[in-house]
Amino acid sequence: MKSMVKQGICVLLLLLVGWNSFAQTLNLSIEDLGERSVRLDWPDLGDGFEYTVEFTQSLGTDAWKPLPHQNGWPDRILGLTDRLSEGAEQRFYRIIATPVATSAQRGRLISAEAIADVSALQLNFVLAIAGVETIQASQSTRVFKVVYETVDAQGNSVQASGQVSFPSDAGQVLPLVSYQHGTVVDPEDVPSRYSLTQLESIVPVIMASNGYVGIAPDYLGLGDSGGFHPYIIAKPSATCVVDLIRAAKTLADQESYQLNDQLFLFGYSEGGYVTMAAHQELEALHADELPVTASVPMAGPYDVSGVLVDTMLSDGSYSNPFYLMYVILAYHGNYGLFDDPSEVFAEPYAQRVRDYLSGNSTLDDLQSQMPKVPKAMLNPAFVEAFSNAHDHPFRQLLRQNDLIQWLPEAPMKLIHCGGDLTVPFENSQLAFDAFKLAGKTNIELIDPFSRGDHSQCILPALEIAKSWMDSLKE
User: What is the value of pTM for the model shown?
Assistant: First the structure.
């Protein structure tokens, strides 16, 4: 423990492991940078630990909040700089060292239930009704709902659910493909609740009918997983994909299916974001165990701190204004953005958020009566502070979850329609430009329908994705 008082800033440094005080004496460095800024540095306990810095305004409360940092995920940080806002008299910090190897048995298959046997005829009928001509089912499939062990954003063991589908021919050597679904609010509107009327739940089944093991995570906070869904937050989005892949491999072995070493990833909208996050996670931390063959992120909001939020904070109307509230609530649930919703939301939306957080209403209630211009739901003071400060805490948290500052090794096709106003095409353009600038030559950006909006792009994007993966399949 170490403390100092300078320029009205009170700093209390505590290093904790697993939320318990750490007895070892450590040399913690505190540097006064002037202009109400302080630099915190701490020693590395080894590769088995990652670090979080939290702060509070008073030691008399338990209102500790994560301190944003510029490094982003999945880097391990050993120091950061914080600048107090004007009017803040003091700030207390604590540094938490969390073992990377948690007690969770990540990817452990908890249960698997066969929920449907689907014929090729049924699938082709649905495809015909949807107007899909270039994709056809070739064999019947068996669909499983699985429950598996994974971790939340804090590394705690949690259960999650998803779908795993197998082709009827068990004599094949199969690649594995993971499909990441788009934004949903209803926790039952997920792939593990397979239905011929729930179109995204059919995608992994169609892939299975074409000679893959098709899987699809429900995501944390949806399906059988409790808590608030970490919407557009990279790390928990990625880990639930990684661990479903592990669980699916276990189930394939139990069902006497043989897998080759190929692993494909694709997804649309939020699923495009989750696909890119999973690709990053797999190559950064699991490349030897689960090498990626190729990925197809489609129409995802990869520039979270820029294009995504600035689009929703514009003066114009937005196709789904609830997405802004969904992002803010997800980040509040993960990071703790406010003590009272009025700090972020204007009335009557602040009261609606209070009702939701206290359990007196549902997300469906929150979705009703949304303003056509999303920023109308926000406290004007919050909007002004966020818009005028590059280092605003919320923008820093968003910046940690950007997915345009890394370099994929496996081939990637970014698919996005130029007319998309829900998730602007600029998201994919920025990612593509960053990858190409770094010298990556196995990345391609495709605009299949330059005038197509978000919904019009889904089918052409899926057709291109499947055709490319089929061409790479062994």
Answer: 0.86
